[in-house]
Amino acid sequence: MKIPPIYPIAAVRFPRPEELTLKNGIRVFGFNGVQNEIVRLDLVFDAGSWTESYPMQAEFTAHLLKSGTALLNSFEIEEKIDSFGSTVKCTAGYNTITVSVYCMTKYLQQTLAYVILSLNECIFKESELNSLKQRKKAGLSVAQEKNDYIADITFRKLLFGPSHPYGYEKTQAAIDGITSEMLLDYYRTFLKPDNCTVFMAGNYGKKEIDLLDTFIGEWDKPGTLVAKPAIIPDLPPFEHPKVHIQKEKSVQSSIVMGNLSIHRMHPDFPAFFLLNTIFGGYFGSRLMSNIREEKGLTYGIHSSMSLLKHQASFHISTDTNLENTTLCLNEIYAEMRRLREEEIPEEEINVARNYILGKFLSRTDGAFNQMESFKSYFIENSPIARFEEITDSIRTLNGLSLQQTAQKYLQEDNMYEVVVG
Amino acid sequence: MIQYTKIPVENGLTLIHHYDPTTPFAVVNTLYKVGAKHENEDRTGFAHLFEHLMFSGSKHFPDFDTPLQKASGENNAFTNNDYTDYYDSLPAFNIEMALALEADRMTHLNINKKSLEVQRKVVCEEFKENYINQPYGNVWHILREMVYEKHPYKWPTIGKELRHIEEATLEDVKAFYNTYYQPNNAILVLAGNIELEKAVQLTHQYFGHIPGKPLPAVQLSEPEQTSAKEKTVYDEVPIDMIYIAFKMCDRMHPDYYTADLISDILSNGNSSRLHQRLVKTEKAFTTIDAYITGSNDTGMFCIEGKVADGCDLQKATDLIWQELELMYNGKIEEMELTKCKNKMLTSNHFSESSLLSRAISLAYFDLLGDIDLINQEDKRYEAVTAEDIRRYARYLFARERSNTLYYLRKNKQ
Fold first, then answer.
1. B55, B61, B70: best mutation site toward chain A, by most A Cβ within 10 Å?
2. Alpha-carbon distance B220 to nearest alpha carbon in chain A (angstroms)
3. Residue of chain B whose alpha carbon sits nearest to that of A7
4. Is A370 within 8 Å of B88 (Cβ atoms)?
5. Helix or strand run (H / E) with residue A260
6. Domain of A58?
7. How far, CA to CA in Å, does A39 sit from each of A30, A103, B23, B163, B355?
8. Per-residue pLDDT tens for B331-363?
9. Is the pLDDT of residue B283 over 70?
10. Which of A404, B43, B237, B276 is 20 to 30 A off residue B211, Cα-Cα?
């Protein structure tokens, strides 16, 4: 067999969205170009855990958004939305609340009507809140049985501190303490037109743009409140970085390690991104090759960066057989050391680089992917031009600069380490 | 509407081409018509273990992933009870690399002691991570065994027990490869920014020389169930769960669509019956779902619910039955049917927007035996009437065909 040649990807450029401002000042970023007559619309609010005055306030507000107004109950609202075949998902993140609409283009208008209604007139009925509390508590008690869940939350508490919006643990008691007033207050403060940005993708035309101007552009919410500045606790000092939690009857242990890290706009970001890919960011990474493919210690091991708006972090996670835990930890540290001490061969860099360029190209492929990537840049406050800067610098990075990056960011002594099992 | 061309190759390989010039990518999807249902009952988990071994490298490529990643590509695979699917997605100008890799591992896979040893361990860790070290992790082992008497669907893809994987030998694995990994047992989909002529030419170039081989005949059947089954297990779980499962028709049966819509009326979306009545009104469950497995042969229709604290198990069970009986005794509102059909349509349209999902679907529908069904499904769902729902629900939800599993907290024992 003749081995086929491989061609590199030429420059990756990110298509810029169509941008408009509605009558009430809401900005819309649109990506057109999908064959089927469908459209996705995300209303993103600057909110989330970061803006809470009580734990899970954002999550409960989001999940109860369609729970009914004085005139329509939750069933009536949900049934209407379902009858158009549409899905409206309300989710809360660390820095956002997002209302995502998935619908056939022809039902955009009807669906939006119920979205705006819910954004303006939700009454957070006691019975709906209680029903959600029951569901959340049941879901939480299942999650609390899982080693990987415990490891993740323990890690975040270490990293950010137990009362930090990125680090707090959800508890049954905190769920019990949530009241309708808290949610209503939060709803009035954060879910309002001057706190909203719209991202749109799919198959739409002038008619749909006009619809946005009518339904979202004329959205006016009476009785809104002004947010008080969030009081965010300082990040904890780096001490007692190793936590091992014994859990009876485990056959495997969950490992999470990592530390606070750099943001996308940081000058070292492209190098650290490429380094992370080589370390544990894809199937061909050193962690996967050594710990899974060579030693068979795990089903999967990954390292990644989490780029939250106000603080980035870096983490490695895996599950391994109990008796192999120490071996696995040692191997992870050994791989860090190798990256600090030995220059990565050019061929290995090239494979990771090409892989990343393929990934980046796929982010520009099709309106839905474009919208997703653009939105995450927007939320973390990075201009989309940074996408191209990162792509370009990944092309030129060499072994020496990656080794220096490893010496800076992959130090065993700076890592938190959590083991549950 | 998904356009495609189906071209048989002389050695029995099926080529399906789907052209999309709007993307810079191409997808190479290879489906092998072998899954957990082709395994021997005391040697289960093989199809899936074998999927892992397919990444061990082949004659011309010591490692599968590296050349593909170097070609800016990404790949993965999955195994279920019916088939095993391998997919590669990469820039269209590098498609030849994916074809060379796939053709090479179809004929010259490098199976050796070392790779078997490592992948056996990896799969055992996967088994533990997902089926042992997880609350309710073994529920499908129990349910399948209850529901199926004869059909190999009675074990899950991961395997019946850890031991079967630990004991897999090099000979077993080689025999499996030689039997099932043949061009005449495969469907190759080339999709994306590649023209038809080029797709045909490259397929002949890379796969044309691989000889086909006769395949073992498989005869699978499953008897009707005639009496209700019930089982209770106690484990370290935080919440009591109830599962009720029924055998249902196969994937190609016209009532497949009816069954799917029944599950949607019961539980798709927050306005669905089970959520509204049993979660919100009765407060008997904190969550409850109805779904179908969608297997090629005799499928499963399942209801699973997390019982709310303080709700009596018998009461919770009775409430489920009351809803199941209403599906044939009560009225199906026109609105309920319309909304489920609309939701189905929207969700199909969204998944069609992904090239990878189109490629995998084309292979899947060809495996079912009627590739054109890929463009007929919307109409099939549309044609289902309230009368169909009542008729099929009456058959489906007969007490004597039910399998009830109580998965309960240990301290309750």
1. B70
2. 32
3. B94
4. no
5. strand A252-261
6. 18-215
7. 10, 6, 19, 49, 17
8. 999 999 999 999 999 999 999 999 999 999 999
9. yes
10. B43
Chain B positions in Cβ-Cβ contact with residue A137 (cut-off 8 Å): 286
Among chain A residues, CA nearest to B121: A296
Structural tokens at position B370: 């009627």
pLDDT bucket at A11, cuts 50 / 70 / 90: confident
Where does A72-219 show beta strands of DSSP type E?
87-92, 96-104, 196-202
User: At how many degrees (to 10) do helices B46-53 and B170-180 cross?
Assistant: 90
Nearest CA in chain B to A283: B65
**pLDDT 10s digits, B52-73:** 999 999 999 999 999 999 999 9
Same domain for A170 and A257? no
Sheet with A96-104, strands from edge to edge, namely: A18-21, A27-32, A196-202, A38-46, A96-104, A87-92
Into how many domains does chain B fold?
2
A81 Cβ contact partners less than 8 Å away, ≥ 6 residues apart: A66, A87, A88, A111, A114, B271
Q: Which amino acid is at A64?
A: L
Q: Is the ipTM of this complex over 0.95?
A: no
Structural domain for B398, as ranges: 229-412
Judgement on whether residues A375 and A282 belong to the same structural domain of the protein: yes
Q: Which of A37, A283, A391 to mutate to test the interface with B (most CBs of B within 10 A)?
A: A283
Average pLDDT score over residue span B394-405: 98
Residues of A in contact with B101 (CB under 8 A): none
Q: How far is CA A95 from the centre of its chain?
A: 10
CB contact under 8 A, B125 and A85: no
Q: Which of A37, A82, A321 sits opposite B125 (nearest CB)?
A: A321
What are the tens digits of pLDDT across the range B367-380? 999 999 999 999 99
What CATH number has the domain bearing residue A85?
A: 3.30.830.10
B196 and B109 inside one domain: yes
Residues written for chain A: 421
Looking at the fold, whether A255 and A391 belong to one and the same domain comes out as yes
